[in-house]
Amino acid sequence: MSNEKVVKVALIGNPNTGKTSIFNQLTGLKQKVGNYPGITVEKKQGICKLSHTVKAEITDLPGTYSINPTSLDETLVLDTLLDEKKSGFPDVIIVVVEIENIKRNLLLFTQIKDLKIPTILVINMIDQMKRKGINIDVKQLEEKLNTKIVLASARKNIGIEELKSTILEYKKLDVTPIGKITDRIDKEYFTRLKNAFPEFPLYKSWLLITQNNEFDFLTNEQRKLVLTFREDLGCIKRYQHKETILRYQIINDVLKESFNVDKSKASDLRGILDRVLTHKIFGYVIFALILLFIFQGIFDWATYPMDLIDTAFANLSSWVKTVLPAGTFTNLIAEGIVPGIGGVVIFIPQIAILFTFISILEETGYMSRVVFLMDKIMRKFGMSGKSVIPLISGTACAIPAIMASRNIGNWKERLITILVIPFTTCSARLPVYAILIALIIPDQSVLGILNLQGLTMMALYLLGFTAAIFSAILLNKVLKIEGKTLFVIEMPNYKIPSIKNIFYEVVEKTKAFIFGAGKIILAISIVLWFLASNGPSKFKNAEETIAAQIESTQLSKGELQKKVASYKLEHSYIGYMGKTIEPVIKPMGYDWKIGIALISSFAAREVFVGALATIYNVDNDSENTGTIKQRMSAEVNPETGEKRFNFPTGISLLLFYAFAMQCVGTLAIVKRETNSWKWPILQLVGMGILAYVSAVLAFNILS
Asked: Most exposed among 9, 124, 128, 667, judged by the fewest C-beta atoms under 10 Å?
């Protein structure tokens, strides 16, 4: 295997052309996701076996409409195609176009052909040809485009083997550009450009001067020449516009005889569906109902597998204590590592269900309609329609949601979206909300059909979205970042979802959550275990101290152990931390024990419940959830004699967790996506102040 020859393949195409479906058919599960060196954009790579001695390393580049980039993802495509010194520079390019939008898709293809890199044109979704009344003269089209064309249907696995054979013979592909576009723009200008950069293809030289990038592969002399040509900005803009017009003229001439559509034979419901789904009233109603169904599915369907996972990890922790000899190492595994891993794995069902729904909406073509529908509203808040998908994703986890904002081309809109996503109610808040609502809100119906506790949960979701919207309005006014972008989005055809694509998407997103957030949560869980399991001299002499205090009281062995555990916790390192911050959190209605839970939950919000379970000497597993509630309900404030978790304190905690940025993983992702510590620190401080003030006001007003 190590002696196999590797062909580097770049897969390129407009969004919604089925490019990723082609990638999945070629590579199957032989895929990996990573970051490009030095930048935060993810790349998908996979291996495809071409013959016994040759395999293809296929890189699925982000979707782009042209190689004149307007976003971070599109800039990556350009950089990949220009720098021949990079290890990822392709031997051959596959450009995927969609059968019904071939005219627009071919603009990108003609640009890439001018770079003189071996290129294969894949016309996807040919299974739709008959229904759409489309006819193609493939041989004539190949002659006019100077390329090899493969007709394919990723959904029905048509043309994939032919594509593999074509990749294998990539050195035989014609690299002649389509038409002499530069001569038709300004022959004299482009002759001068060609003489300035004789070592590059002419169109590559043109791209170097039209972009504001500082290309690393250029020499100092080449960089000076680029800057000289860039001085005539008006000329560049004029020629770019003329280039686009000429390319479409060539595409029209090419398609005139080799591609035709007989509308009389076509039959589809796209127009009718679009009028309903993007209607100015019904469109929003339908979207709201779909969201309601998704959230209902997330909470209802995920409960059973989450309970199984919770029970399994609780049993695993007990089993470890039983099998391994007592000691520090056993405690580390049973109380630190196993609960840490369980705290990540338990949320897999919710995340998998959410991304299954989102993948279905994207696969069917509906998500593009949602983006179009929401754009007008979102722009009033400094965001765009493209911000909707990250905000929806944030209801599962803010980490992948923030990563999903990369498709927003305008930096200001993208930054605002990144900063407000943590306000949306993520799945990590659910355990906190559930136990606090059960403690302070009575389980009674409203109007005979609605549950008061359920309405409270819905109100917290709405509160999160409202906070995100108002924060976006404020940031839009405060951030002095220039830049307006035209909103351009393709309305793809409606399609039956591909089960294979949905499966790969859910697996990839779930893996990103487990190995992204999971590593951070696990590491901090181990640190918290150490801080709670160790302390200074009083901690070490706990048993003697407790025994001296209760000489006259007869306690069972179990009761003594609970007393010792409680004393140790209070005098552990984390106990002292709780005591230290108690004066600060007291105005919110909290004591040092809740303070420990607050400190712990900075690793991840869901740690709050586990910390309270430890504090109140109750095992943290699904079977004893009721006991946790009972002990929390029975906890008394020694100063007032009232319940610790009364209505004012409960509302205070709910508001605190609704607004506070208590997720180290999210802060790390924001730092990575913005390439600066400025923005995550701003988030941490800003959301922290809002959470603190809201909690203090709520507690004091309601007390």
From this structure: 128
